[in-house]
């Protein structure tokens, strides 16, 4: 009979420390060091050159266009996400799994491929290209195509955040409200929406972050034309290619600042959601 030797836990205490060290080193290499370098390059000549980059017409137009795309795509995806979440969470129908897979499609394909699909549909040689040309409607290399690309890549977030909340919430309170005489609209505003508000807000925050930071799909359909179809991420690339490094890094700092705000809002909403679940 052999007796297995019990290993001393102290001898393995180095394993968590090594794993944590590897994780921190990886984060420094792929996130922290590049981010520090962006801020260093943006401010190395002082605040005056940094702020002067924000007055350039190309930068102002890119910032305005980025904001406009986000402002329009967020309500579109909010309405779509709520409708899709309601249909999926409240009804069982043939093809439900396929619908869920389609909603997740922007997660599984490259944004460049998404932009290419829009070009193949609405471009000059695309399926709808001849009809659009006949009616003098321009989609590709114009704002409508950029909006389609932005809405597509940011489509899943609201639906994916609201569906599990609706499934967990159940139908009891909604059915009780209808029994008391409330119509569907009153039931949604007074019963359903308060129960999903934090999940909806969380989805909107993620939608905004993706809309403002999208590069690949918008780059394909926009043509990256300064003062016309250039968003902030595209401005960063073009300015860097033209050796205007200070302008590129200044725009990158602004995008990083927006990302930090998004993370803060995300953390606040997550804590609110956790408190609600505990209650």
Architecture overview:
With 279 residues, the chain is mainly alpha-helical. It has a single domain (45-278), classed as MetI-like (MetI-like fold, Orthogonal Bundle). The chain contains 14 helices and no strands. Helix 1 crosses helix 14 (245-278), helix 6 packs parallel to helix 12 (216-222) and helix 9 runs antiparallel to helix 11 (184-213).
Notable traits:
single chain, 279 residues, mainly alpha, MetI-like fold, 77% helix, globular
Compact overview of the structure:
This protein is mainly α and 279 residues long. The chain has one domain: Orthogonal Bundle (MetI-like fold), CATH 1.10.3720.10. It is built from 14 helices and no strands.
Topology:
Elements (H helix, E strand, L loop, with lengths): L13 H30 L3 H6 L4 H34 L5 H8 L1 H4 L2 H12 L6 H6 L8 H11 L2 H14 L2 H8 L4 H30 L2 H7 L9 H10 L3 H34 L1
Helix pairs in contact: 1-14, 3-8, 3-9, 3-11, 6-8, 6-12, 8-12, 9-11, 10-11, 11-14, 13-14
CATH superfamily: MetI-like
How does the helix and strand content classify structurally?
A: mainly alpha
For the largest beta-sheet, the strand count, sense and barrel status come to: none
Proper CATH architecture: Orthogonal Bundle
* CATH topology value: MetI-like fold
The residue-averaged pLDDT reads 87
Count up the domains.
Answer: 1
* Helix content, binned percent: over 70%
What is the general shape?
globular
How far the N terminus sits from the C terminus, by CA atoms, comes to 55 Å
Q: Give start-end ranges of low-pLDDT stretches.
A: 1-5
The amount of beta strand, in percent, is under 5%
* CATH class identity: Mainly Alpha
Count of beta strands: 0
Evaluate the radius of gyration: 24 Å
Helix/strand order: HHHHHHHHHHHHHH
Count of helical regions: 14
